[in-house]
């Protein structure tokens, strides 16, 4: 099972208000933010959300892990949020590489299409090298 099974179970699943586009982000008012953060308040996946999105590293705009993020900085926090939920992985995934595929697997998640393809191509090259006669 993928390490991101919880995404479809999260209270915000499928709600685009949590990750608005630029124009909608500019118009996000305090009452709307409080209502969305209230949804996060009851969410058991806040720390997993931060670990998946990496809001500081990705300079995220939106609501993630019970916080409102603008350009990777926290602007508002839901009641009951704990600083320990903000731990981001030290090593971001280098997508589209064999190392990226290994990083996905180490995290217990299915590799993204770019990383799966990179890993497949490396395997093909290794098989060809084994098959080719050595001088």
Explained architecture:
This protein is mainly alpha-helical and 135 residues long. It folds into two domains: 5-86, no CATH class; 98-131, no CATH class. The protein is built from six helices and three strands. The protein has a three-stranded antiparallel sheet with strand order 1-2-3. A hairpin with a 2-residue loop joins strand 1 and strand 2. Helix 5 crosses helix 6. The chain is elongated and about 70 Å long. The mean pLDDT is 84.
What is the quaternary state of this protein?
Answer: single chain
Secondary structure: helix percent: 40-55%
**What fraction of residues sit in β-strands?**
5-15%
Structural class: mainly alpha
> Roughly how many Å apart are the termini?
44 Å
Query: What would the average pLDDT be, to the nearest integer?
Result: 84
Topology:
Layout: H1 22-26, H2 30-41, H3 46-53, H4 55-58, E1 62-64, E2 67-70, E3 73-77, H5 98-106, H6 113-131
Antiparallel strand pairs: 1-2, 2-3
Helix pairs in contact: 5-6
List its salient traits.
single chain, 135 residues, mainly alpha, three-stranded antiparallel sheet, 6 helices
Structure in a nutshell:
Helices cover 42% and strands 9% of the residues. It is mainly α and 135 residues long.
């Amino acid at each position: 099972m993928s390490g991101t099974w919880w995404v479809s179970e999260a209270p915000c699943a499928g709600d685009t208000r949590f990750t608005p586009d630029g124009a909608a982000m500019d118009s996000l008012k305090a009452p709307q933010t409080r209502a969305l953060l209230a949804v996060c308040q009851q969410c058991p996946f806040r720390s997993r959300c931060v670990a998946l999105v990496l809001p500081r590293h990705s300079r995220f705009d939106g609501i993630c892990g019970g916080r409102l993020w603008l350009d990777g900085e926290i602007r508002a926090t839901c009641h009951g949020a704990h600083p320990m939920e903000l731990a981001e992985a030290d090593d971001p995934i280098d997508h589209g590489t064999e190392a990226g595929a290994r990083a996905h697997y180490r995290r217990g998640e299915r590799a993204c299409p770019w990383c799966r393809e990179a890993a497949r191509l490396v395997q093909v090259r290794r098989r060809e090298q084994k098959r080719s006669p050595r001088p």
